[in-house]
Amino acid sequence: MKSISITGLVLLAVSVLLFYLTTDFTAEKITLSHMMGVMAGIGIGLIIGGMTGYISKGSAIKAEEKRREFKRLQQEKEELEKKAAEIVKKQEEIERENKQENPQI
User: Fold this and answer.
1) Cα 19 to Cα 34: distance, rounded to the nearest angstrom
2) Pick from 103, 105, 104, 1: which is nearest to 52 by CA?
3) What is the SS3 assignment for 55?
4) Residues 75-79: contacts with CB within 8 Å, 24+ apart?
5) Predicted TM-score (pTM) of this structure
6) Rg of the chain over CA atoms, in angstroms?
7) How many CB atoms lie within 10 A of CB 3?
C-alpha cells in the first residue's frame, strides 16, 4: 500500500514539475499538457487507492481478529459447559451411592 502511495506521489510531482516548466498549451494534438493531466490523474488515483486499500486492510484484519476471538470464546464456553455437566453427573452418582449405602438418610 505504501509503494502505491509513493508511486502516486512521484507521478503527481512529475506532472506538477512539467506543468510549471511549460507555458504553451494547445489542444490541436496530444501534447505534453495532456500527458501532465494523465499523470496527475493517475498519481492522484494511486494515492487515494493506496490510502483506501491501507484503511480497508486494517479494518479487515481487525474484523478477522474479532472473529477468531469470538470462536475461541465459544469453544471455551462449550468446554466449560461440558465440565459443568460432568461435575453434576459425578455429584449425582455420589449422592446415589450414599443413598444406597445409607438408606436411612
Assistant:
1) 10
2) 1
3) helix
4) none
5) 0.47
6) 35
7) 9
